[in-house]
Amino acid sequence: MARRPKIPATKYPVERRTLDNGLRVVLAPDRSAPVIGVAVVYDVGIRSEPEGRTGFAHLFEHLMFQGSENLEKLAHFRHVQGSGGTFNGSTHLDYTDYYETLPANALERALFLEADRMRGPRLTEENLRNQVDVVKEEIRVNVLSQPYGGFPWLKLPPVMFDTFPNAHDGYGSFDDLESATVADAAEFFKRYYASGNAVLAVAGDLDLAETMEMVERHFGDVPARPAPERPTFAEPDLTSERRESYTDPLAPLPAVAAAWRVPDPINDYAAYLPYVVLAEVLTDGEASRLVERLVLRDRIVTSVAGYMGFMGEPWEVRDPTALLLQAHLPPGGDVDKVLRTVDEELDRLATEGLAESELARTQARMATHLLRDTDAALGRALRMAVLEQQRGTPELLNDLPRLVGEVTEEQIRKAAAALVPQRRATIEVVAGGNQ
Amino acid sequence: MKALPDLGPTRKLKLPKEAERTLHNGLTVIAIRRPAVPLVEVRLRVPFARANLARAAVLSQTLFSGTADMSTVEIAAELQKVGGGLSAGVDPDRLMVSGNGLVTGLDRILELLGDVLGGAAYPSDEVATERDRLADRIQVAQRQPAHLARVALLTRMYGKHPYAVQTPEVSQVQAVRPAQLRALHAERLHPAGATLVLVGDITPERALDTAERVLGTWNGGGKHVELPRTPAIEPGPLTLVDRPGSVQSSMRVALPAVERTHADHAALQLVNLLFGGYFSSRWTENIREDKGYTYGPHSVIEHNVAGSSFVAAAEVATEVTGPALLETIYELGRLATLPPKAEELEQARQYALGTLQLGMSTQAGLATLASTYAGFGLRLDYLPQYAAKLAAATLDEVAAAGAKYLAPANMATIVLGDAERVEGPLRALTAVERA
């Protein structure tokens, strides 16, 4: 019996509170460095944007930086950076986050800034048109000018899913972006940016009582609005294989991505967790199943990656979601052969099980990744905010390495057995870049 | 109106506990304690100037591809068992091995590192695999505008200096043979002048003992290779690189700069921030937040061992390429001829000071910082000195740095884009030469 390395854990203390206006607050003190991370997460993402308004959740994220009740355009950036901090925001399938990390002496400032835009961003025609232009440039940089731009996160969902929330382009079409109005933005803010639909998390060098008092002072008067009812985005699982391809004019080499639906990450956590570990067993490092077989032995792909959810965030996604595998192929590579070999390896894993130490070493490496993510105060604040929002358990952050470590070989085999071709959605990139 | 809260008292920069030892074979080991998470970060920096480009690149990808006793997969699996991972990369100054793992695995990670440093075998099969993978990655990079613009910029900046070409050709990579890798390893992969940085939940003196025990037998010797100082950047006509059909133009501007130990360093860092070095900079506020020409404009002082330079980069919409260059010249010229506002300088100063705190607040950040500094003969005690210089830089000094370093008359400029559409407007502003 191989000796299992002991999986270490963190012990960040976590304090939770709900303000009278419905805002949920999570505080996690850690005095090891004089910095703090502040995250505000709203329970709205790409899946909630209205039809005819693709890309709107992301466009709105940009508008949240364009001035607020007491602040001019550009003031937010200047105040965060002028306090020695950095900031950003990002739009996901199920949430939108806004965050900053700063020296600890700027904590109250950060709270003020976040509260001010929670009360109301300045939604003006001029700022909207300006940010539509900026977002178009963002899409050009990341999608239109890049080989494999948007692969697979924008390209695979429409193969796997049928309904607008799950299948549409979350970056948005230029037509939809250009036709967005200030009234659309005001409506979106009113509906989704309610105090009852948000979580504030602060991690790092803070005093609990003092911070809670500051939070009350700045967020307490944000008008109460309840969270909107979250519709179900459920879709039936695939019963037969789906496969599509497209030509990428910039890509010099073929690529492929495949996905299978997985159990509900929130409501069926115990069944979901083994898939998270399976993705790493398959692709984490040179000693993983698929890297060893596809890259090193058969040499039919040049890289292969496996992860959970279209944005690769296993702990920050709701149902429906998927386990994804993506691979880049050498010149003239054979996608069918790659898929056949993946099927063969999954079947071998399901029927023959894991090699000695294979699971334990994968779990040890996952623990390192999890602990490393939380070393930064901001990494802790962001993850805790989403854990609170989606599960009501921010302290789960401390338990993740242990829970990952408790997944058994039998569970991995069962998960691998479920990844059969008839439940698979595949997108193939045809290289158009060599003409 | 609600008022912005004041900042709390500034915390002084506190240096972590560290220890340093130079081993008999010439390896300098720096061990730094940051116990926040039970992990350790590893950075090994080996001087690698003038190494053959293609061979160095393939060597970095095959360093962990086997020893006399272990295969690629076995090395990777052994690292994984202690939650560890190691990977290597090269640039024109150094070969860098980076990794991390559970702190309980430090001995094992160093043993495995020692095994490959002393006995990497470069097996033919593995070399062939990695060579092809690297060749494919270079092919993909050659379709990426940012990469192509960088290639053109380096040629323009460095002429015949070894920094001018930093990516090998596909054919050069494919011609690399295992014997050449073994020869390059034997010649250059030695501890003389190399630095190993360990950061984490460690007792520094004990970590040094471990490193000495494990790596003290790494073969000393090797040879000392120095690069000539980089040539002065030659101003002159804008270099236009045609990329027909581009929806964006990649604009790059290079200007002279000075190394970290130069008397002008702090003032130059500040003037860089004022121009384009952070979001609240004049350039970003102008061409993004006011005009919507671009998504992520940015400028940075790049420090290399043989010289430093200022580089500004933006991807702008094709139709506004001329106007974007106009605004770039305008903002550089404004900083070169007019003093900044005191308030604006304070904001940049706070940002520079605050981000020093943030950069030190994680194990990974601290490790990268300490390793980078070590490559220039500096230690962490440089940080408080630098902070004091940032704090003391006067408006006059910053204005003088603007005049001395940012003058548009000294610009070397590259634009990569659809020449047919952008050449006319660019010619209206400056002389243009086709690449």
- Please count the helical segments of chain A: 16
Largest interface: A-B, 84 and 81 residues
- The percentage of residues in β strands of chain B lies in 15-25%
| Average pLDDT, all residues of chain B | 97
Task: Tell me what the CATH architecture of the largest domain in chain B is.
Answer: 2-Layer Sandwich
Please tell me what the overall shape of chain B is.
Answer: globular
Tell me the total number of β-strands of chain A.
11
The main pleated sheet of chain B reads as: 6 strands, mixed
CATH level 3 topology of the largest domain in chain B: Cytochrome Bc1 Complex, Chain A, domain 1
Provide a count of the helices of chain B. Answer: 16
Quick one: CATH superfamily of the largest domain in chain B?
Metalloenzyme, LuxS/M16 peptidase-like
Q: What is the typical, i.e. mean, pLDDT of chain A?
A: 96
Give the strand tally of chain B: 12
If you compute it from the alpha carbons, what radius of gyration of chain A comes out, rounded to the nearest whole angstrom? 22 Å
Calculate the terminal CA-CA distance of chain A, rounded to whole Å.
Answer: 55 Å
Low-confidence stretches of chain B: none
Biggest sheet layout of chain A: 6 strands, mixed
Q: How helical, in percent, are the residues of chain A?
A: 40-55%
Q: What is the fold's blueprint, element by element?
A:
The complex is a heterodimer of chains A (435) and B (435).
Chain A: E1 15-18, E2 24-29, E3 35-42, H1 56-63, H2 75-81, E4 86-91, E5 96-103, H3 107-119, H4 125-144, H5 157-160, H6 164-167, H7 174-178, H8 182-192, E6 198-204, H9 208-219, E7 242-248, E8 255-261, H10 269-283, H11 289-297, E9 303-308, E10 322-328, H12 335-352, H13 358-373, H14 377-391, H15 396-405, H16 409-418, E11 424-431
Parallel strand pairs in A: 2-6, 7-11
Antiparallel strand pairs in A: 1-2, 3-5, 3-6, 4-5, 8-10, 8-11, 9-10
Helix pairs in contact in A: 1-4, 3-9, 10-16, 11-12, 12-16, 13-15
Chain B: E1 18-22, E2 28-33, E3 39-47, H1 53-62, H2 72-81, E4 85-90, E5 94-102, H3 106-119, H4 124-141, H5 145-158, H6 170-174, H7 178-188, E6 195-200, H8 204-215, E7 238-242, E8 248-256, H9 265-277, H10 282-290, E9 298-304, E10 307-317, H11 321-337, H12 342-359, H13 363-374, H14 382-392, H15 395-405, E11 412-417, H16 419-427, E12 432-434
Parallel strand pairs in B: 2-6, 7-11, 7-12
Antiparallel strand pairs in B: 1-2, 3-5, 3-6, 4-5, 8-10, 8-11, 9-10
Helix pairs in contact in B: 1-4, 1-7, 3-8, 9-12, 9-15, 10-11, 11-15, 11-16, 12-14
